[in-house]
Design brief:
2 copies of one chain form a homodimer.
Chain A (H helix, E strand, L loop, with lengths): L1 E5 L2 E9 L3 H18 L4 E5 L2 E6 L9 H14 L1
Antiparallel strand pairs in A: 1-2, 2-4, 3-4
């Protein structure tokens, strides 16, 4: 995960790679299910063979411990 | 749809808004199904209440008529 600042908001972001669009989309759906379970929602950029997930906490305009937990859970989905 | 240049590649992009994350994700899945049907794949950015779709043709590094057709089909899904 890479820390970065987007529009003044600190975020953590990671790119996950896949063999095709369908596999990327399956991962996107799994991350979306995690987001609903956690009631915490990332930005998910789905492209051919690639999904970029960004976590941050809108309410504080930056990173909260919960973002790091959700990042770890995102990694578990990818494993 | 807004024409823009990303990393030297001309693309068309549109933001679609929704009431929550689940509705945004449903739209993302529908656009993904369109992409597989067309064998042409956009970038889909899914966020809480918002989906940004970008079409371009990788092979020519810019826009092809097919991108405009896929954009119109994306609009039909949103309607």
């Amino acid at each position: 995960w890479q820390r970065m600042t987007v529009n003044g908001t600190e975020q953590i972001k990671r790119v996950f790679t896949f063999k095709n669009f369908a596999q990327a989309m399956t991962f996107t759906q799994q991350v979306a299910e995690l987001a609903e379970q956690e009631n915490h929602h990332p930005a998910i950029l789905t492209e051919w063979g690639k999904v970029t997930v960004s976590w941050w906490t809108h309410e504080i305009g930056g990173l909260h411990q919960n973002d790091l937990i959700c990042a770890a859970k995102t990694d578990q989905i990818a494993d």
